[in-house]
């Protein structure tokens, strides 16, 4: 039994022109301390799978279980706030908040006082390899790699053990990609995080502890 | 291909395309109708302005007003004192009265229109004394020995023989003096038809021995006892002028000779020598079948030449060269005068402007045109003239005090007739020329000093200014042919149309901006694709513009078509509505005097506004779309140089908590976005507030006008020009309306000092002359307020009176409060001139005489400097100890201006005639409300317009606020998605964005509220701010909720 589990999950959605079966009867399990790579071609259902794992939506059929509790039985907001952290390809940082305030935001959602959150943010930013000077800057003043590190720091600030990353290196150069991956790997292997990376980068996927390959919404490997 | 794809990609966004097509269609329709209505109103008003002519008559309210030929020095003084009215704004032409007299061979004025109909210069012979019977009283003891007392049906006669005889005194006739008839002078014959005898009592008549016996009821002033006192009234023959035979007419209108003429010497002192013939100058005062009666009169006042002269035969030089022949010729000439009037705008002369006169053929002489004239039909007929013929005239010179006492000049004119004017009573023998003819200078006759032609739209304003400049005793009367009332609905409609056009333009701009932004500006994705495929910029532009051109084009075309099809009907409805809403009630108003002109309004509505509106909307759509094409393409151009990023001063903020913290930080750091919202809120809510304040200001002005305006009114002659010498049987009846106060009336009687009255013979002729003399005396005016006094009723100015200590105007209404110790004495106010002439001072007592009340002891308690020739005395109405059958003038005040409409209604219900209603009663009621009504109507028009436009503009501004807030929130979808992705609750997310927008919006609204409150002092502006904020926040809340309903997954996917 993994930290996160998919049981016969299907997901169908209706666009303006067609009905799309994004995922079909997927069953999978994810444990802590490991890095998982979800790979597949464009349209294979990778991002949909990640969204269901992130609690952004519920499967139309089947269940997503976190610590054996189905997300359908939880308040999704609370699930997203307390159980999973997501890192997006485009960083998804608040443009009008400073780096520190971005990192502090999820902590504050959980009731941490701003002062305490700021102290913790300092540590997390350092942990992802950024200098303290970036704390007072806006995300747009940082490079892509730095912004992604801020996103990782924010995810760490959520204090969960499940880290979902959607193409985390998609917008980065090779050096930055490797750095980011090593941080994620370290979090899994050293701190016991369950890290699930959605990527189409075969090289990156090869570095993962386990690979889940999707094709036409189904697990092929 | 590019165009096809552009069109397809546009129209396939079906909902958006339909929405904007409808919006553009509606706005095209509204703009087109607004412009059409505006254009229709402007054209119609222009046509009405051409058709209507407003004039202001400047008249001196002199003693003999409205006599058009009176020679009044005070009127001439007023003319000399007149300001230059041509400089008054709104006056397009100012002309003083300019007319002269002329003669043309062969022209004879019709009967009843000649000035010297009663003047005569006659040669009379066989002149003998004429006697008439007159009465006298005699005491009993003074009765002669021989007399006859007439007593009922019998009388006692003491005959010549000394016998007393009671005789039956007429069974046929009553016992009055008329029964004693002259059968053949000097015999007095008593006829007793019952006895069929004629008793010769001529001896009695000669001796004056016929008496009536009567009794009168007297009171002994000493004892207060009443008793009957017997008196006797005798009759005697008294000389009363002369009789003669007319031998020759040097001048008389009828020209008859050989008839009997009675001659009244009048005041001339004519006493003929027996058997002599005389040439007499005088006037005919009676004309029978076989006799005439003339009064000998002076040639003119102050002439020292005798109006009679004895002659031997007709060869006497007096028949060829004398003042008698001179006057005979003058009368002959004067009777056939033609009146030549000059003006550079003949059609605007009062009789033409009022429709009494009009052209039947040809045209009027133009301004400055010389050698041409227009004539009346009677001249044309008598002289057999038609348009194109020439009329020859000898210009004559009037004497200073008689316009028709013509002196010949060597000034002859020949004018080509260019117009023939209808014949109307009082306008016979008239000729009109332009000022270019330069008529000989003539003294002013009558009271019309001049006339101003006015700009129809500024007539009331101009008249107000002219009145302010007018000297005392001068009145300005406006005749606008009903323009103000007719133009009012169209002006109101024009204002509304302007508002609709303006609002439509704003709407067009707002909608087209959004249209261009959404259909072009936000097409970066498509542009990205095209750029990536190497599409040339021109083709990208074509792709982007082709769709919007089609959408806008079709919508505009349909809008134009609908507009063109419905315009006629909608404008007819609008006109009907405007007439119902704005039909100005000007009944009884001094602003609606005279004839009303009916001008048919054009029925056809121009179609060009539909075309122009369509072109404007379409071109604006294209221009804005082209502007947004640039924006769409710029997104795909690498920016040159570095973007300047501002590092937050405080670094990391720990201020606030939760949603408030995010809202605060976001608002503080939002850059242009945080500026746009307050500015938009400031401008739009400020605009609404400004409109509200302005409308409120108009409302306050109107209320203030109603509260502070005193509307007066008066009874006038039918044409609304004469306020005095009317005969009002019950002017107080209007008080039954309950809406008037301060009804002031006056009644006047001629007065004189007893010592000033000359002796008049105690016979018919004497009494006649006495009545004539009294008629010329000044008036003692009994009134209850000075405003109604003939001296002041035409002037808005109050008289400046110098009062005897302890006296004031209140004595007119409450004389008992002032007259303690003055029992039996009437307090009076007089002119300083009169006081000087009579040698009296303030406080002096003097006795004046009136026919009605006999001697009246008066005390002068106040004096004023007169502006006119009259020296009237003013006394309290309550001092008039007699029943008043009618009043000569009445002026009143409305209790409240709010009652104006109800009062008009009351007057109409009570069937009071309106000024200018020549079919109504001769006396009418006129309200002095033109300035008030016009101002109130203008304000009412603005207020109604604001009431119509404000909700539309409020909605428009609100929708703009709504759209702005919607766009502002939608631009933050990514942040929204991040928050939700991080597990922020919906409430918190809502709070974060809503509080931020609310803060920014309120900042602008509060600022506009504060500024407008400080500027206007009207707290009402906060309603505008609050209203706008509500719209904005509603848009914001709806946008947040709509975004909140979108799946986070979708948001995150499309957030970029």
From TrEMBL, chain A:
It holds the Pfam family ABC_tran. One of its GO terms (cellular component) is plasma membrane. One of its GO terms (molecular function) is ATP binding. Transmembrane segments: none annotated. InterPro entries: AAA+_ATPase, ABC_transporter-like_ATP-bd, ABC_transporter-like_CS, ABC_transpr_LolD-like, MacB-like_ATP-bd, P-loop_NTPase. It comes from the Bacteria. Keywords: ATP-binding, Nucleotide-binding, Transport. Belongs to the ABC transporter superfamily. This is ABC transporter ATP-binding protein. It comes from Candidatus Enterenecus faecium.
């Amino acid at each position: 039994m993994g930290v996160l589990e998919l049981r016969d999950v299907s997901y169908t959605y209706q666009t303006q022109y067609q009905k799309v079966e994004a995922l079909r009867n997927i069953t999978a399990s994810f444990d802590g301390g490991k890095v998982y790579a979800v790979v597949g071609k464009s349209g294979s259902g990778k991002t949909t799978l990640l969204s269901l794992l992130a609690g952004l939506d519920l499967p139309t059929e089947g269940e997503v279980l976190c610590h054996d509790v189905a997300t359908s039985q939880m308040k999704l907001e609370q699930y997203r706030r307390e159980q999973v952290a997501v890192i997006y390809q485009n960083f998804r940082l608040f443009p009008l908040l400073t780096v520190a305030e971005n990192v502090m935001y999820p902590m504050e959602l959980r009731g941490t006082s701003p002062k305490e959150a700021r102290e913790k943010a300092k540590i997390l930013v350092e942990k992802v390899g950024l200098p303290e000077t970036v704390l007072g800057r806006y995300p747009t003043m940082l490079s892509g790699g730095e912004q992604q590190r801020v996103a990782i720091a924010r995810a760490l600030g959520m204090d969960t053990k499940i880290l979902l990353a959607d193409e985390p290196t998609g917008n980065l150069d090779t050096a930055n990609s490797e750095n980011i991956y090593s941080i994620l790997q370290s979090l899994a292997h050293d701190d016991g995080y369950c890290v699930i990376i959605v990527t189409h980068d075969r090289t990156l996927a090869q570095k993962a502890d386990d690979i889940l390959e999707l094709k036409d919404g189904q697990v092929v490997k | 291909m590019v165009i096809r794809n552009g069109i397809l990609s546009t129209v396939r966004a079906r909902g958006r395309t339909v929405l904007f097509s409808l919006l553009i269609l509606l706005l095209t329709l509204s703009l087109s109708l607004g412009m059409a209505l505006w254009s229709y109103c402007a054209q119609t008003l222009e046509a009405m302005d051409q058709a209507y002519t407003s004039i202001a008559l400047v008249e001196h309210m002199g003693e003999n007003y409205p006599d058009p030929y009176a020679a009044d020095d005070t009127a001439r003084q007023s003319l000399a004192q007149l300001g230059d009215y041509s400089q008054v704004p709104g006056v397009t032409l100012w002309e003083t009265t300019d007319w002269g007299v002329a003669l043309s061979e062969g022209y004879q004025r019709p009967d009843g229109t000649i000035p010297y109909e009663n003047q005569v210069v006659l040669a009379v012979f066989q002149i003998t004394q004429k006697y008439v019977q007159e009465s006298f009283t005699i005491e009993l003891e003074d009765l002669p020995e021989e007399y006859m007392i007439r007593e009922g049906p019998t009388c006692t006669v003491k005959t010549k023989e000394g016998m007393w005889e009671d005789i039956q005194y007429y069974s046929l006739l009553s016992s009055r003096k008329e029964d004693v008839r002259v059968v053949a002078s000097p015999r007095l014959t008593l006829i007793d038809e019952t006895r069929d005898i004629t008793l010769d009592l001529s001896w009695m008549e000669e001796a004056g021995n016929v008496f009536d016996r009567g009794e009168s009821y007297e009171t002994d002033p000493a004892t207060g006892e009443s008793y009957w006192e017997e008196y006797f009234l005798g009759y005697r023959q008294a000389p009363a002028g002369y009789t003669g035979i007319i031998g020759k007419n040097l001048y008389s209108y009828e020209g008859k000779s050989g008839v009997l003429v009675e001659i009244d010497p009048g005041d001339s002192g004519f006493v003929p020598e027996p058997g002599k013939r005389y040439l007499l100058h005088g006037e005919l005062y009676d004309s029978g079948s076989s006799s005439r009666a003339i009064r000998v009169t002076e040639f003119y006042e102050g002439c020292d030449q005798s109006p009679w002269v004895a002659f031997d035969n007709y060869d006497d030089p007096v028949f060829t060269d004398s003042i008698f022949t001179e006057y005979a010729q003058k009368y002959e000439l004067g009777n056939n005068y033609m009146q030549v009037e000059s003006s550079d705008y003949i059609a605007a002369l009062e009789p033409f402007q009022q429709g009494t006169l009009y052209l039947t053929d040809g045209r009027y002489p133009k301004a400055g045109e010389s050698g041409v004239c227009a004539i009346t039909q009677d001249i044309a007929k008598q002289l057999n003239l038609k348009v194109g013929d020439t009329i020859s005239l000898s210009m004559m010179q009037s004497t200073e005090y008689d316009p028709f006492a013509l002196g010949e000049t060597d000034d002859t004119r020949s004018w080509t007739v260019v117009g023939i004017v209808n014949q109307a009573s009082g306008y016979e023998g008239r000729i009109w020329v332009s000022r270019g003819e330069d008529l000989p200078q003539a003294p002013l006759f009558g009271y019309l000093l001049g006339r101003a032609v006015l700009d129809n739209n500024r007539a009331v304003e101009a008249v107000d200014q002219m009145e302010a400049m007018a000297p005392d005793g001068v009145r300005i009367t406006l005749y606008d042919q009903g323009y103000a009332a007719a133009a009012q609905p169209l002006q109101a409609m024009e204002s509304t149309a302007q508002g609709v056009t303006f609002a439509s333009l704003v709407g067009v701009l707002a909608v087209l901006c959004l249209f261009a932004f959404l259909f072009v500006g936000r097409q970066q994705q498509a542009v990205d694709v095209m750029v990536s495929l190497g599409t040339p910029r021109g083709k990208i532009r074509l792709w982007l513009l082709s769709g919007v051109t089609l959408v806008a084009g079709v919508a505009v075309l349909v809008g134009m078509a609908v507009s063109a099809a419905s315009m006629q009907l909608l404008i007819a409805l609008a006109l009907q509505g405007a007439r119902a809403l704005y039909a100005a009630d000007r009944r009884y108003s001094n602003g609606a005097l005279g004839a009303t002109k009916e001008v048919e309004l054009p029925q056809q509505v121009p179609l060009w506004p539909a075309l122009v509106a369509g072109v404007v909307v379409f071109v604006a759509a294209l221009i804005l779309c082209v502007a947004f094409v640039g924006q769409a393409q710029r997104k795909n151009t690498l920016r040159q140089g570095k973007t300047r990023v501002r590092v937050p001063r405080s670094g990391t903020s720990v201020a606030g908590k939760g949603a408030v913290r995010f809202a605060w930080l976001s608002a503080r750091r939002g850059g242009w976005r945080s500026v746009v919202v307050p500015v938009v809120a400031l401008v739009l809510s400020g605009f609404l507030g400004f409109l509200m304040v302005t409308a409120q200001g108009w409302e306050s002005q109107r209320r203030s006008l109603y509260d502070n305006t005193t509307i007066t009114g008066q009874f006038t002659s039918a044409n609304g020009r004469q306020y005095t010498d009317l005969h009002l049987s019950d002017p107080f009846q209007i008080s039954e309306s309950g809406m008037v106060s301060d009804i002031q009336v006056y009644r006047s009687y001629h007065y004189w000092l007893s010592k000033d009255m000359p002796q008049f013979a105690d016979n018919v002729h004497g009494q006649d002359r006495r009545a004539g003399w009294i008629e010329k005396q000044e008036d003692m005016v009994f009134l209850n307020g000075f405003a109604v006094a003939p001296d002041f009723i035409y002037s808005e100015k109050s008289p400046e009176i110098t009062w005897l200590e302890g006296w004031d105007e209140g004595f007119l209404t409450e004389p008992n409060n002032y007259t303690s110790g003055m029992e039996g004495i009437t307090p009076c106010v007089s002119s300083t001139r009169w006081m000087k002439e009579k040698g009296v001072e303030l406080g002096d007592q003097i006795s004046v005489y009136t026919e009605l009340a006999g001697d009246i002891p008066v005390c002068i308690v106040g004096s004023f400097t007169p502006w006119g020739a009259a020296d009237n005395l003013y006394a309290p109405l309550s001092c008039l100890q007699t029943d008043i059958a009618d009043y000569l003038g009445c002026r009143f005040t409305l209790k409240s201006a709010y009652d104006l409409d109800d009062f008009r209604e009351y007057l109409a219900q009570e069937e009071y005639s309106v000024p200018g209603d020549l079919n109504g009663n001769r006396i009418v009621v006129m309200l002095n409300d033109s300035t008030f009504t016009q101002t109130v109507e203008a304000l009412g028009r603005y207020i109604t317009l604001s009431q119509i436009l404000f909700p539309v503009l409020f909605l428009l501004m609100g929708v703009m606020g709504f759209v702005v807030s919607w766009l502002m929130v939608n631009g933050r979808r990514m942040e929204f998605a991040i928050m939700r992705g991080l597990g922020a609750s919906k409430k918190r997310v809502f709070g974060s964005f809503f509080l931020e927008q609310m803060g920014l919006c309120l900042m602008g609204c509060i600022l506009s509220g504060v500024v407008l409150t400080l500027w206007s002092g009207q707290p009402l502006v906060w309603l505008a701010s609050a209203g706008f904020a509500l719209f904005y926040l509603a848009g914001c809340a709806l946008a947040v909720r709509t975004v909140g309903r979108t799946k986070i997954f979708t948001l995150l996917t499309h957030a970029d």
